[in-house]
Amino acid sequence: MTGTSSRAFPPSRRLVLGGALGLAACNRRADAQAWPAEVPPLKHVAPFPVGSCVQAGQLDDPDWVVLARTHVSQLTPEWEMKMEYIVQDDGSLRFDRPDRIAAFARENGMRLFGHALVWYAQKPEGFLRLDESRVSFGKAYDNYIAAVVGRYRGASGWDVVNEAVAEDGDGWRDSLWASRLGDLDHMVRAFRAAKAADPDAVLFINDYNLETIPRKLETYMRLIDRLLAAGAPLDGIGCQTHVDAGLAEGALERTLNALARFGLPIHLSELDVSLVRARRPLAGRSALEAAQARVYAEAAAAFAALPRSQRFAFTLWGLRDGDSWLVRENASDRPVPFDNTGAAKPAAAALARALAGGG
Ligand code: XIL
Hints:
Blueprint lengths: L12 H9 L20 H4 L4 E5 L7 H10 L2 E4 L5 H4 L9 H12 L3 E4 L3 E2 L5 H4 L5 H18 L5 E6 L13 H6 L3 H13 L4 E6 L6 H16 L6 E4 L2 E3 L6 H10 L5 E9 L9 H21 L6 E6 L8 H5 L16 H10 L4
Helix pairs in contact: 7-9, 11-12, 12-14
């Protein structure tokens, strides 16, 4: 079912209060079927796919299921398609939870977006225990990518290489993969293995802080050039967009426009807008929430302004505040568009207007 009622749009007073009260108002709806969609379904107003991250546990939460079915048309596993979940210490692979997510996406007519094959942050025991010979390590690397991408053949795309650029933009990150297989070579190799396993999946590189660290954006763009020149089948560019409510106006638009110069599809892949990380002093909660709504609207408008063929998907890194990794890090943050009861916050209303092209 999809809750398609668009009453109370722009948001009612109750919605605004719901946003302001945040987790304090965390009482679950008794009847998920009675969910009132407070903003029009985002996936219907946007002329491109709208996504969210998901964890398998959320599939057992009827409120999350209704919210996701209402608003999103693509799911990215938040962590259960990463090596940290899939690769066991003895080198075997487990797919129970990612399979559940893939089945849910299929049954609900949503696209599945794979995340993430190669990530500097993870070096599983299963790989560390391999002998030191480059040949066996490289084979295990290829086999891993072939097994995972092959199993989810039909996914809309994959983050093949995640967060390869150094934190401050000064070169590329060190990682187990870079040290064993070569800094550029391990990336090229991952793209080739993924393409062989699913020729139709759109293969992405993905990174963050591109809006706030100009040097990081430059290094990212130079890396994309290098990968393309090396013949890597890199089909798309991810811009995670973990930003905060103090983000300077125009920063998102400039970043997306710079990335779009390659002519490749763009995935705004992990959008959230932190309140507590806001660096600019913003007086009080309601000013922060208004600034947050402005940033969500700007992200949507900047994405919507890209050429149609380059708008791969617009993905939220969490729907309800209580689902967000940032809230797990800092319980007072409220970074995503819906509050813990699933009610639309001002950010959701601003997002809906901008996705619809209303600025
Ligand atoms: C985060 C998830 O949200 C957390 O649940 C997990 O524990 C760690 O990873 N960039 C990425 C995502 O590419 O995979 C990260 O997701 C957030 C930053």
